[in-house]
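Final report, Chapter 2: Outcomes

The project's central promise was a pipeline that accepts a single protein chain and returns its three-dimensional structure in a standardized token representation, suitable for archiving and comparison. That pipeline is now operational. To close this chapter, we reproduce one record exactly as it appears in the project archive, with the input sequence first and the structure output second.
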Amino acid sequence: MSIPISRPIIGLEEEEAVLNVLRSGMIAGGAKVVEFEEAFAKFVDADHAVAVNSGTSALVVGLAASGVGPGDEVIVPSFTFAATANAVAFLGAKPIFADVDPETYVITPETVLPLISEQTKGIMPVHLFGYPAPLPELLELATEKGLELYEDAAQSHGATVENLTTGAVGKFAAFSFYPTKNMTTGEGGMITTSDPEIYRVARLIRNQGMEQRYVHEVIGLNERMTDISASIGLVQLNRLGEWTERRRKNADFYQNNLDPALKPPKVSEGIYHVYHQYTICPPDRERTIAALEENGVGYGIYYPIPTHVQKPYADSAPSLPITEKLADEVLSIPVRPDLEEEERSLIVDVLNGSVSV
């Protein structure tokens, strides 16, 4: 038996949706992109959405539309994929790396507050693995300090904290539809916002700075999503709720059956976790990995090298002890919605066996 950690779920509905677009002759940004934007904005409970060609593009365009640039600092986690910091640095601003909570893996007001300076423009939490950062508290801190709050929601489609949906709280949020995410468009991203100016400027930037053809209002790029991708996204969005509940059911099974020594993830009250990843911290990661490999169970280490010690940032790397410890300990296991019961049971048996005396 081989159990992959993740794989996209693509069915006949997606195939037919793509064929309909191909047959229509409108392949690039057209009616399907607009339909997808409207549906996703409603799903997130935001006023607007701007579809782009990747989650990284969503970060870059959202930050640029927010006016982030040279001389600015944006506080971000290091314990995440490097795109979060890279988007800030790409615009000439400086990412300031915050440590994370050791149980939830997200930044908090306590880890952010000491890093605020006169150059700080914003705070950008990542809702890592589908677990939402403490948005009410971070928004309160940002408001108190006169800062902006942005959201990297690449992994948190539908997650909520105290009934607030990720993607609807910050000045903008960036989502990813990469094939391993909770829903996919093949490749793509989305900016959500309730700020009309962010919406207007983001639309300009993603389309070469144009609203009217050949009239360039700002410097922009081609960051557009195709109708092919949007047609897949519309089908996937309709199934996302069902898939999320399956992920949560799989996570509940793990929570109830894994040995506590594996340190299953903590979920606080008021949190709706969407489990992009189910991440544990086994006492001996290499031993657990060997057991998984022996039994054909896929796994991932997210993320083995923290962003702040990567080459572009290493010269000014701060000390982030929790981030560095987690990078040495975390291990993600399959939690995908098409996981079979017998597969879940095998995974639990293998994991528990790896920590038994």
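Archive annotation: The radius of gyration is 20 Å.
This record, like all others produced under the grant, will remain available to the consortium after the project formally closes.
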